[in-house]
Amino acid sequence: MAFVLNNLRTLSKLGTLTVHQPTFRKGGVRVLACVHRGMTSFKQIDLSGVFPPLPTPFNQDETVNHEHLRNNVAKWNEIGFKGYVVQGSNGEYTYLTDEERVELVRTVKQAAAPGKLIIAGSGCESTQATINMTQKMAEAGADVAMVITPYYFKGRMTNQAFMHHYEKVASASPIPVILYSVPANTGVDLSVDVVAALSQHPNIIGIKDSAGDVTKFGSMVQRTEASGFQVLAGSASFMLGTYTVGAVGCVAALANTLGKEVCQLHSLCKEGKMEEAKKIQHRLIAPNSAVTRKFGVPGLKVAMGWFGYYGGPTRSPLLPLTPEEVDSMRADFQNNGFL
User: Fold this and answer.
1) CA gyration radius for the chain?
2) 121, 177, 245, 289 from 253: Cα distances, Å
3) Cα separation of 330 and 339, whole Å?
4) N or C: which end of the chain has fewer CB within 10 A?
């Protein structure tokens, strides 16, 4: 805990200083970027609800198709989503150029229905690149930045390194920041101690955790709720369990195909109708596993086509599913009454 206390003392000291003062343009207005103290707290932003992490639609030549994205968003606007995550893992952000990432945020912002919260995945490997990307995505219309853990130099991604990274990003960001931990993809994780310490930063409002450890979710909620910090489940497969210990919402790949059902599960949990919620949760587990752990983004894009959305190809080196894999995934949906 010593490093946590030391970093919090550093935050307190920095609170008397202006640590970052660039301006940026958002909605035609020039805005001063955030500082540690004296800035408006974003803790009042409500993350309660379901957010689909939008896949990036590609043409057969792997160029981005913005028209297909606009058409998909128009259909998703009819569902009770809280908002959209653009450039999460399911957006294949690691395969996109910086320009493509920013333009996708702009397209979704323009296509989204009024009131939808736009969360943009702005994480990069270096701290400075993440700061720059976050500012560009804010200019493109993002309401919140979701910042994945750096992971390439895993051996040096210590608690101290994560604290330093997120403090600098959040202090420079003109929009609020959500921490993003997805150990299955990165091989690193944020400890509860780090999450609890970072929750004290006025510009860090929550975390999306995709690991699914319900015990950890409970600990994070217990240690951060006094600061207004919000915890989001990172998968539909463990929504019910995490909601029972205090998670407020979910970023779920499955919501791209079964959005109404995932939103129904959210509503039932909030209303305390646990028996009904349990039945839906059970039905969602196999389809969710199919479009995440088993078949990933290629599987998700195939499933989108079954429900009237454009999925399309992935970008190389991701390969399409084999016919046998498609049949296996179809059975996961059919056996639970979704096809």
Assistant:
1) 19
2) 14, 20, 21, 10
3) 8
4) N
Cα–Cα distances (Å) from 272 to 240, 261, 268, 276, in that order, read 11, 16, 6, 9
232 secondary structure, DSSP code: E
CA-based nearest residue to 237, from 189, 184, 175: 184
pTM exceeding the 0.90 threshold for the entire prediction: no
Residue written as tokens 């792997």? 62
The pair phi, psi for residue 117, each rounded to 5°, is -85, 125
For 255-291, b/e burial (b = at least 16 CB within 10 A) is bbbbbebbbbbbebbeeeeeeebeebbebbbbbbbbb
Count of all residues that appear for the chain in the document? 339
Contact status, residue 117 vs residue 142, Cβ threshold 8 Å: no
- List the pLDDT tens digit at each of the 339 positions of the chain: 333 333 433 333 333 223 333 333 333 333 333 444 445 556 789 999 999 999 999 999 999 999 999 999 999 999 999 999 999 999 999 999 999 999 999 999 999 999 999 999 999 999 999 999 999 999 999 999 999 999 999 999 999 999 999 999 999 999 999 999 998 999 999 999 999 999 999 999 999 999 999 999 999 999 998 999 999 999 999 999 999 999 999 999 999 999 999 999 999 999 999 999 999 999 999 999 999 999 999 999 999 999 999 999 999 999 999 999 999 999 999 999 999
Take residue 195 and report the two structure tokens written for it. Answer: 């999450």
The one catalytic residue in 136, 208, 216, 301 is 208
Residue 211, beta-bridge partner list: none
Cα distance between residue 290 and residue 297, in whole Å: 10
What is the distance between the alpha carbons of residues 254 and 178, in angstroms, rounded to a whole number?
Answer: 21
- HSE-CB at 257 with a 13 A cutoff on CA atoms is 25
How is residue 324 written in tokens?
Answer: 């046998």
75 is catalytic: no
Angle at CA 237, nearest 5°, toward 232 and 240? 65
